[in-house]
Design goal:
The chain has 334 residues and is an alpha/beta fold. The chain contains 13 helices and eleven strands. It folds into two domains: 171 residues, 3-Layer(aba) Sandwich (Rossmann fold), CATH 3.40.50; 143 residues, Rossmann fold (3-Layer(aba) Sandwich), CATH 3.40.50.10750. The structure holds acetyl coenzyme *A. The site of acetyl coenzyme *A (ACO) has 16 residues, from helix 7.
Length: 334
């Protein structure tokens, strides 16, 4: 995908520091070596220094010597991070004893490094479930101001007559199971921003349902119609319309027939799904049945960029997600 080259070039221009908590995992270590060699980001690996160094020598990963290695069991900033954890979650029942235990967990250590300004972003999940990666991030990094839910978008490389010359964004395909209308509106707005920041395209956002402009009556349709209104108010600079069926959203002839007054119908390049169930199934079917590349999930709405890998990921998936996370981090800094 040409877009990935653009994303990598952007990442190289202003190097961010990306922490990889699964520092001893083979694909992660190989990806870290490539990221350093290609100058995509500064790399922080979490794990025992001796184990990481031994593996790097065994696999001939010579650039790992340039990574910063932080040992979770022997971390000089432990007390500073524990104090920060207590400041954030003592009211939620966190004790010093528990915090001292949690900070030895690389997934917690990574988010505390970000919170403390010692790293700009995180990529994890080659070895851990989505829930285990996201929970520490939700608890300590939290959402950015004005956003209450984190969601996950995919960049979809579809046939060139769809979307923006074959590029579309799908969301939420990864995080929030059953959003309310207000949450769905936030997801639409955040996906529009991801389209601008990561894909470099001006979004045309379709809020999908099984109804187009009132063609069906159901409370699920009402939710999407309401979310559309809220999203339009949240960010009037974004082109958002709904509720639209998928065919009305992406096929010009059907869009003009079912929603003749819509500026989005038939031309959408961002698809927002009403629930996680629909979004997750849809992206996987498009990926597998149509043979499309799907890059992501790119998590959006968090106060700092933290991205989750599939446990089936390849080395290049990790490299790509590091580059995307670095570009998100640049945008956060700006
Ligand atoms: N955005 C922001 N914060 C959230 C979100 C969200 N979407 N969801 C939960 N939180 C916060 C809660 O407010 C809570 O904060 P608090 O402790 O300060 O009060 C904290 O996170 C923990 O909340 P829980 O409700 O305990 O969260 P839980 O651990 O039950 O679930 C999770 C969160 C893991 C993300 C859950 O929603 C989930 O499992 N989602 C599905 C993920 C998934 O499996 N996706 C499909 C696979 S990915 C793929 O195919 C690409």
């Amino acid at each position: 995908m040409k877009l990935l080259e653009t994303i990598k070039a952007k990442a190289q221009k202003n190097k961010m520091s990306i922490v990889l908590p699964e520092g001893t995992e083979e694909r992660t270590l190989r990806a870290a070596n490539i990221c350093i060699e290609e100058g995509l980001s500064n790399i922080i690996l979490i794990g025992p220094k001796e184990e990481i160094t031994t593996k790097a020598i065994e696999w001939n990963l010579t650039s790992i010597t340039k990574a910063t290695i932080v040992d979770p069991l022997n971390n000089p900033k432990k007390d500073e991070y524990v104090d920060l954890m207590l400041k954030i979650r003592e009211a939620k029942g966190l004790t010093r004893e528990k915090a001292e235990e949690l900070i030895k967990d690389p997934l917690f250590l990574s988010v505390l490094m970000i919170k403390n300004g010692d790293a700009d972003g995180e990529v994890a999940g080659a070895d851990n479930s989505t829930g285990d990666v996201l929970r520490p991030a939700f608890q300590y990094v939290k959402t950015k101001p004005g956003v209450s839910v984190v969601s996950g978008a995919f960049l979809m490389d579809v046939p060139s007559h769809f979307g923006e010359d074959g590029l579309m964004l799908f969301a939420d395909c990864a995080v929030h199971p059953n959003p309310t209308a207000a949450e769905l509106a936030e997801i639409a707005v955040e996906t529009g921003r991801t389209a601008r920041v990561i894909a470099g395209i001006e979004p045309r956002i379709a809020m999908l349902s099984f109804s187009t402009k009132g063609s069906a009556k159901h409370e699920m349709v009402d939710k999407v119609a309401q979310a559309t209104k809220i999203a339009q108010e949240l960010d009037p600079t974004l082109a958002i319309d709904g509720e639209l069926q998928a065919d009305a959203a992406i096929i010009p002839g059907i869009g003009s027939k079912k929603a003749p007054d819509s500026k989005i119908a038939g031309r959408a390049n961002v698809l927002v799904f009403p629930t996680l169930e629909v979004g997750n199934i849809a992206y996987k079917l498009v990926q597998r049945l149509a043979g499309c590349d799907a890059i992501g999930p790119i998590l959006q709405g968090m106060a700092a960029p933290i991205n989750d890998l599939s446990r089936g990921c390849s080395v290049s998936d990790i490299v790509n997600l590091v580059a995307i996370t670095a570009c998100q981090a640049q945008a956060y800094k700006n």
